């Protein structure tokens, strides 16, 4: 499988979000760091080196409408998942403890709750391990995603799989 929630292999690079939808915005996980691209622009709007990131958090919504302002109101009423304008975002702390956040465009497809949980946990665990640069290694990330993506929907303690796979493949 070539995707895990909002994380998708495009060519030979892993991307968070869909740059092809509307005014698409995506984050390319490059060797040097995270590159923020917007549809129709040849160069990235921002490049954040892995070495300048202290923490990173991934947020995702199951369906595209949940990442809208009104979708956020509806989702907030349920109280159990991310929603609203920042529902599809990557945020963190950069050097000098400067907050950083960027939204990405949701794909047309629905993200399964399992894929969302696994992708969010993968980014969190790499952040905790101070190994965010591994997300910029396409071969390593492909190996991780190929093992995580087929996780059955009703697997107990699915985030334990993330830890096991990271341990197996190394950080």
Provide a descriptive summary of the structure in words.
With 171 residues, the protein is of the alpha+beta class. The protein is 29% helix and 26% strand. It has 4 helices and 9 strands, in the order βββββββαββααα. It has helices at residues 69-78, 113-128, 138-148, 158-169; strands at residues 3-4, 7-10, 13-16, 25-29, 33-38, 46-49, 53-59, 89-94, 98-103. The longest helix is centred in the C-terminal third of the chain and has 16 residues, at 113-128. The model has no long low-confidence stretch (mean pLDDT 90).
H and E order: EEEEEEEHEEHHH
Which band does the percent of strand residues land in?
A: 25-35%
Largest sheet: 6 strands, antiparallel
Number of helices: 4
Number of separate strands: 9
Strand order of the largest sheet: 1-2-3-4-5-6
First-to-last CA distance? 22 Å
Low-confidence spans: pLDDT under 50, at least 5 residues? none
Q: Over all CA atoms, what is the radius of gyration? A: 15 Å
Number of domains: 1
Helix/strand-derived category reads alpha+beta
As a percent range, the share of helical residues equals 25-40%
């Amino acid at each position: 499988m070539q995707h895990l929630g909002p994380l998708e292999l495009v060519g030979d690079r892993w991307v968070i979000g869909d740059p092809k939808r509307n005014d698409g915005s995506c984050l390319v996980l490059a060797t040097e760091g995270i590159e923020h691209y917007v549809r129709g622009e040849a160069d990235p709007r921002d490049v954040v080196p892995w070495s300048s990131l202290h923490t990173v958090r991934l947020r995702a919504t199951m369906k595209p409408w949940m990442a809208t302002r009104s979708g956020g109101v509806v989702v907030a009423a349920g109280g159990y998942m991310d929603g609203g304008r920042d529902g599809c975002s990557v945020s963190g702390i950069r050097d000098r403890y400067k907050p950083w956040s960027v939204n990405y465009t949701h794909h047309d497809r629905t993200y399964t709750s399992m894929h969302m949980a696994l992708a969010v946990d993968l980014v969190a665990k790499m952040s905790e391990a101070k190994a965010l640069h591994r997300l910029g290694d396409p071969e390593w990330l492909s190996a991780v995603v190929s093992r995580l993506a087929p996780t059955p929907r009703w697997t107990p303690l699915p985030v334990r799989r993330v830890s096991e796979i990271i341990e197996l493949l190394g950080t």
